[in-house]
Amino acid sequence: MISKKLANLDSRIVYAVVFLSILLPLWRPLGLSISVSDGTLKVHGLLNALSQDDTVIVSPSFTPSTEAEVYPQMKAVLRHLLSRNARIAFACLNVESQIYAEESMAALAPEFGYEYGVDYVILPFTPGMETAVAAISNNFLGTYPRDAYGTPLTEIEAVTGIRSVSDFALIVDFNTGNTAIYYIQYANPRGVRVVAGASGVTVPYLTPYLATGQLSGLIDGMRGAAEYESAIGYPGEALAAMDAQSLSHASILALIGLGNGASFLSKRGDARDAEQKKQSYGGELDE
């Protein structure tokens, strides 16, 4: 009986179905539709409003432990910035920040014809987190006399005309801590809008600033990265991950429903068989 076979399905088959439901969308995304939250739309709108002469601070303030959530956000936003021909200055508040800046631009710069020093610059690691952001906001050129490779900042075309943090059009901070709050506290009063991409656990700390308008936009975790990829019309790893999550959840629910249904039908079949045997023995079959 099929219902009995399904009710006693080998657990290895169940694991294989769930595994494939995760693997296949990562290999070939399904392109499932996804709604875009208001916080993500605000970031997208601000970047759309940038002009070619605008320079933006991008701050990769996250660590490898949250890379899976935040790095896809950064790559999607960078793709949008490069499509807008904005100039970029990477501010490195973590020791890993420079690696993320170099890696992301190595992948994107050739596609958009960006050249180091002309269209973007990577600033050296500045320790201290809050004190570093305060220094950047109070004395940008004093904090960064040279770039990450020792070239005087006055010789770098990407930051021509930049004398203070007020000369930047926008600050985009990708964080898993309080760095976005530091930018709000020190740079926002100087007339610079701040937007953030954050891990899911960090978002509750930033939401009040979004509500008051001190934070001009907020991308929320892997879901937010997928939303941004959808907004710019470029499906990437975040949308693929959301497809995998959706399909795996659907397969688990389907397996639960199938198992429960098979178990119910199997019990009904057993009861019917017992009743038929009882009747065939003239009602003398002991239950």
How would you describe this structure in keywords?
alpha/beta, 287 residues, Rossmann fold, 2 domains
Describe this structure in words.
With 287 residues, the protein is an alpha/beta fold. It contains eleven helices and six strands. The protein has two domains: 63 residues; 203 residues, Rossmann fold (3-Layer(aba) Sandwich), CATH 3.40.50. The chain has a six-stranded parallel sheet, sandwiched between helices. Strand 4, helix 8 and strand 5 form a beta-alpha-beta unit. Helix 4 packs parallel to helix 10. It is elongated. The mean pLDDT is 85.
Question: What is the element layout, followed by pairings?
Answer:
Elements: H1 2-7, H2 11-27, H3 38-48, E1 55-61, H4 67-83, E2 87-92, H5 97-112, E3 120-125, H6 130-138, H7 140-143, E4 170-175, H8 179-186, E5 193-198, H9 203-212, E6 217-220, H10 221-232, H11 237-280
Parallel strand pairs: 1-2, 1-4, 2-3, 4-5, 5-6
Helix pairs in contact: 2-11, 4-5, 4-10, 6-8, 10-11
CATH topology assignment of the largest domain: Rossmann fold
CATH architecture of the largest domain: 3-Layer(aba) Sandwich
Supply Rg: 27 Å
The percent range for helix content is: 40-55%
Query: What is the CATH top level name of the largest domain?
Result: Alpha Beta
Number of domains: 2
- The helix/strand series, from N terminus to C terminus, equals HHHEHEHEHHEHEHEHH
Count the DSSP helices: 11
Q: What is the residue-averaged pLDDT?
A: 85
Q: What low-confidence regions span 5 or more consecutive residues with pLDDT below 50?
A: none
Mind describing the biggest β-sheet? 6 strands, parallel
> What is the number of E strands?
6
Proportion of strand residues: 5-15%
Can you list the strand order of the major beta sheet? 3-2-1-4-5-6
Distance between the termini: 23 Å
Inertia-based shape: elongated
